[in-house]
Design brief:
Blueprint: E1 2-7, H1 13-19, E2 24-29, E3 43-46, H2 68-76, E4 81-84, H3 86-94, E5 100-114, H4 116-122, E6 126-136, E7 145-150, E8 155-160, E9 165-168, H5 180-187
Parallel strand pairs: 1-2, 1-3, 3-4, 4-9
Antiparallel strand pairs: 5-6, 5-7, 7-8, 8-9
Helix pairs in contact: 2-3
Length: 188
């Protein structure tokens, strides 16, 4: 499979590379104004962020979000998309969800409850996944995103109702119940 991996300055690049072994992966480091090289790709993956302060609500660029053009890309891209952590937040924000900063970083494996729609996709009532984030999506009220799983801190998995887009707050590339390959099979 030909994959465009948009690197949002992730700290988990080695795990992503291992998870995508055997695929033709082109990596593009994200920065505002990037031209997304997705035309000949089968899948686009938006990675997690690196916690360097370039988050979804960026105080360093007043009046302009750091990930604004990535949100526009999500809305217009005609390829299947998987969003991981920051990529998930970009997808949710693109479709109008609120993003909230936590008081502290969440890191480690957590239990996640799947919704009825999530059970249909994953055939599991509960997931155990690795998380590393300090931003959350408390709820999704979008007419076009289904919530497939939630944890104590908020939404964990969303899937677009009519497009091949799925996003996870957790890091499937770091192991757990749900692997990155399983997500790819849902959207590709």
């Amino acid at each position: 499979m030909k994959i465009l991996l948009v690197n949002n300055h992730t700290r988990h690049m080695n795990s992503l590379s291992e998870s995508l072994a055997g695929h033709d992966v082109q990596v593009q480091m994200y920065k505002p104004g990037i031209k997304f090289m997705h035309a000949d790709k089968d899948l686009v993956i938006l990675s997690g962020g690196g916690g360097e302060g370039l988050e979804i609500y960026d105080e360093f660029r007043p009046g302009k979000l750091w990930y604004e053009d990535q949100m526009k890309f999500v809305l217009t891209c005609n390829k299947p998309i998987i969003g991981i952590c920051m990529g998930f937040e970009v997808i949710c924000r693109a479709y109008g969800a609120e993003i909230k900063k936590l008081d502290k970083l969440i890191e480690g494996f957590i239990k996640i409850k799947t919704s009825a729609k999530g059970v249909n996709h994953f055939d599991k009532n509960e997931l155990k996944q690795f998380e590393s984030h300090e931003w959350v999506v408390p709820k999704v009220e979008s007419f076009c995103l289904d919530v497939l799983a939630e944890s104590k801190t908020g939404v964990e998995v969303v899937k677009h109702k009519t497009r091949n887009i799925i996003g996870t707050q957790f890091h499937p590339e770091k192991g757990g119940t749900l692997q990155l390959a399983e997500l790819a099979h849902i959207v590709v």
